[in-house]
């Protein structure tokens, strides 16, 4: 569905995407993770055929976006990071008007609007204007609108940012249904649990490069441990505890408010720490997550 080799995007002297390779298979959910400025959005815009590449090779749906952009865009669905709905039109009108941009007949877009409103659970709001809808409803409508042309490839940029947990889970359900129906998904997200839920494979980008690629489980196995032990201490006690627990994990991370021990068995490490007289205020044993991988690969420093 998407093939990139040594793909580069420059803005003047600044290289936002620095020679990345990608391969997105038909029917999978593929994710981009990375801090702000990593090059995710620049890559998505090249795939969406709205930003020309500066160098390298790129094919989308077997076509060159630079030469066949309109043909590619006709078969894509795009969900932007910010909803760009026509707020003074109704839910139904948003779908019908957007469908006409693709040259679809009025009869077809009327039928398609009914189908998509049911898919997005917006049938009861069909003739309501968009402006007073909740954030979750607007997001569902944006996704529904992106499907009006029956796309083979759906690009979703931060699809659930700002939504409450119920709305996020409902959107996940709708995206699972699309994937089950054969639609290929490419997702950017800052939510690690979302990436684990949705993505079959993903890449982690940092500084315009791909620094890791694989399934969520593969990345966790490669860059973290099975479990993480978190130890929290009273002010002033943490520094003395560090030396006593350093050898209890494959990797130890000392943060201002806690110590993280990356280990195969968190309970065993906690028992050993207690045996050495370490008495934290609280302890937590949890499984490693994509967030642990993400922070190890990209660091904890805030990037603006």
Automatic annotation (TrEMBL):
Primary subcellular site in the record, as a coarse category: membrane
Keywords: Antibiotic resistance, ATP-binding, Cell membrane, Membrane, Nucleotide-binding, Translocase, Transport
Localisation per UniProt entry: Cell membrane
Record-linked InterPro entries: AAA+_ATPase, ABC_transporter-like_ATP-bd, ABC_transporter-like_CS, ABC_transporter_ATP-binding, P-loop_NTPase
Pfam families tied to this protein: ABC_tran
Membrane topology note: Peripheral membrane protein
Keyword check for ATP-binding: yes
Molecular function per GO: ATP binding; ATP hydrolysis activity
Domain ABC transporter: residue ranges: 2-232
Any one Gene Ontology BP term: response to antibiotic
GO CC terms in record: plasma membrane
Family: Belongs to the ABC transporter superfamily.
Protein name: ABC transporter
The species this protein was found in: Prauserella flavalba
